[in-house]
Amino acid sequence: MADDAKRHIYSPHPEGYSQARQEQYKQYLRKLQHNFIDSWNEKIECNASLGDFEKIKVLGTGAFGVVYLSKYTKTGKYYAMKVMEKEKIVKMKQIEHSYYEKKILCGLNFPFVVYMKYFFKDNVYLYYVLPFVAGGEMFSHLRKLGKFDETTSKFYGAQVVLALEYLHSCELVYRDLKPENILIERTGYIKITDFGFCKLVRGRTWTLCGTPEYLAPEVILSKGYGLSVDWWSLGILLFEMSAGYPPFYASDPMRIYEKIVAGKYRCPSHFTPDLKDILSHILQVDITKRYGNLKDGALDYKNHKWFKDIDWDSLLNNRLQAPFVPKIRSPGDTSYFENYDDEKVKESPVCLYEEEFADF
Ligand SMILES: Nc1ncnc2c1ncn2[C@@H]1O[C@H](COP(=O)(O)OP(=O)(O)O)[C@@H](O)[C@H]1O
Ligand SMILES: [Mg+2]
């Protein structure tokens, strides 16, 4: 087999992921962490302006803004431009989160997460320009198919494990894992987007944020929490990908929270014993028993039976065949995204909230 050929059959090491390999991998992560901290301590200046871009189409909308497919006119390259209205950020008390999002996006460098290519602000808005991930949201694919087979869930889930391990090694808690924030690359691999709730935490934090179905019990119980919340949401994601619906569900968020803190869920009968087993180690209300949060960290995932087909180093290097590869017809192809109405652009002759965003 040619050295750079994709492997069609996953061929893991028979002995699993050894402590020694994990030590070596952690050294690599430490390098990435240093790079992240260097970027964090640097003041990064705006490096473009709105006039450099042509806005083409709305790709998605969220609580604070709109994401557009945009073309950088100097190079003709396509990007996703997240545009957030300063007024909305201020009214929803998200100034701090928007600073974090910018600083974090500027420092990220990992295969399965997006990063910031350009950013700038004007009188009304903040702009984050990210690589355009053309295969659309995992959410759309999941709803279209109903559910994924376990091979597919495993392929995506394993990348999320590596992404969380990377973020956590940078002391970042992500806090918004869900299929809407996971995008599919043209290669069929994932990119996690939306760092709007991501935060650098040393120790504990208290803010209630995230999405009801994906909230960890310790967030709901306002106990103060840390990186463990992301591992919980990975459990919800593995369940939702394989079942087509989340494990704790109700139409009223309060009922969802009651179910989450009780920690009781039922797996569909088609789940394999290995999937049920890994879920039982993740959806643990007691964080001292939750996988990812134990002394071996992410190694517990890398060596669990459900993931035994995954060769983690090949996965990191995009050398496993993806179960689904989107058909992208041209660089700016948006056919994997829903259609949205164009947003009306606001203008102002004076700079709004200049002080609040002075350091942006
Ligand atoms: N880099 C990207 N490439 C393609 N689409 C993107 C990208 N980033 C975000 N989107 C689309 O825009 C949507 C909203 O972006 P997101 O950052 O999640 O905003 P919000 O914080 O408002 O949820 C995403 O769910 C996705 O559909
Ligand atoms: Mg989002």
Automatic annotation (TrEMBL):
UniProt domain AGC-kinase C-terminal: residue ranges: 308-360
A biological process term (GO) from this entry: imaginal disc-derived wing morphogenesis
GO cellular component entries: cAMP-dependent protein kinase complex; cytosol; nucleus
Catalysed transformations (reactions): L-seryl-[protein] + ATP = O-phospho-L-seryl-[protein] + ADP + H(+); L-threonyl-[protein] + ATP = O-phospho-L-threonyl-[protein] + ADP + H(+)
Name of this protein: cAMP-dependent protein kinase
Domain of life: Eukaryota
Residue positions binding ATP: K82
Domain Protein kinase, first and last residues per copy: 53-307
Keywords, ordered alphabetically: ATP-binding, Kinase, Nucleotide-binding, Serine/threonine-protein kinase, Transferase
Family according to the record: Belongs to the protein kinase superfamily.
Group of enzyme by EC: transferase
